[in-house]
Amino acid sequence: EAGVAQSPRYKIIEKRQSVAFWCNPISGHATLYWYQQILGQGPKLLIQFQNNGVVDDSQLPKDRFSAERLKGVDSTLKIQPAKLEDSAVYLCASSPRTSGNEQFFGPGTRLTVL
Amino acid sequence: GNSVTQMEGPVTLSEEAFLTINCTYTATGYPSLFWYVQYPGEGLQLLLKATKADDKGSNKGFEATYRKETTSFHLEKGSVQVSDSAVYFCALDSGGSNYKLTFGKGTLLTVNP
């Protein structure tokens, strides 16, 4: 079974530029998560989708971050404009709703904002 | 709100040494508890979990027991290997239908041959 796919793996941009990340969850997984992991910290949930609807986006900085999950499959996370403090690894995870609590993580995208 | 506190790293051990990584939590209700592991260059993967008090999760020689009285979920392994070198994250899910995880900061483990 293929795992969660993310691209790109690495991205370097200047502050005030925009950037987008892509995630393709495990086939059939209804729930999709985006996390931000700053160096030395644990992942922090940014947004959670159930199919193509948003379940929780309480920690998403909505003035600059946006995310969508069209057709309830793959998802994109966008930052516009980026700030220095957005430098982090952005993790995507998915979960089949019937499995309980386990989440399956992708390899992440490492973003550096200069 | 929910929170997870892990022991500060990094932890450096020799092969075959005993490992303990402490984890305590604060949560409302009856959380499920997890240990995730992140090997170099890879995504997080579930190592073990426990869903109620006194449950013991185990996998690959690692164990952790859900202690409600001490709000703890310490990770242990009797004899570590070089291949266990990774970052270990303790996490909780406070239940409900959203399956929302709260993570600790992670503990870097390095095992030397």
Task: Describe the fold and architecture.
The complex is a heterodimer of chains A (114) and B (113). Chain A is built from no helices and 11 strands. In chain A, the strands form 2 sheets. In chain A, strands 2, 4, 5, 6, 9, 10 and 11 form a 7-stranded mixed beta sheet that branches. Chain A starts with a strand and ends with a strand. In chain A, 37% of the residues are buried. The model of chain A has no long low-confidence stretch (mean pLDDT 92). With 113 residues, chain B is an all-beta fold. Chain B is 0% helix and 50% strand. In chain B, the strands form 3 sheets. In chain B, strands 2, 5, 6, 10, 11 and 12 form a 6-stranded mixed beta sheet that branches. Chain B has a 4-stranded antiparallel beta sheet with strand order 3-9-8-7, with no helix packed on it. In chain B, a hairpin with a 7-residue loop joins β10 and β11. Chain B is globular and about 45 Å long. At the A-B interface, β5, β9 and β10 of A face β5, β6 and β10 of B.
Give a nutshell description of this structure.
Chain A is mostly beta strands and 114 residues long. Chain A is 0% helix and 48% strand.
Structural features:
heterodimer, A: 114 residues, mainly beta, seven-stranded mixed sheet, four-stranded antiparallel sheet, 11 strands, 0% helix, 48% strand, B: 113 residues, six-stranded mixed sheet, 50% strand
Helices and strands in order:
The complex is a heterodimer of chains A (114) and B (113).
Chain A: E1 5-7, E2 10-13, E3 19-24, E4 31-37, E5 44-50, E6 53-56, E7 65-68, E8 75-79, E9 88-95, E10 104-105, E11 109-113
Parallel strand pairs in A: 2-11
Antiparallel strand pairs in A: 1-3, 3-8, 4-5, 4-9, 5-6, 7-8, 9-10, 9-11
Chain B: E1 3-6, E2 11-14, E3 19-21, E4 23-26, E5 32-38, E6 45-50, E7 56-59, E8 62-65, E9 75-77, E10 86-93, E11 101-103, E12 107-112
Parallel strand pairs in B: 2-12
Antiparallel strand pairs in B: 1-4, 3-9, 5-6, 5-10, 7-8, 8-9, 10-11, 10-12
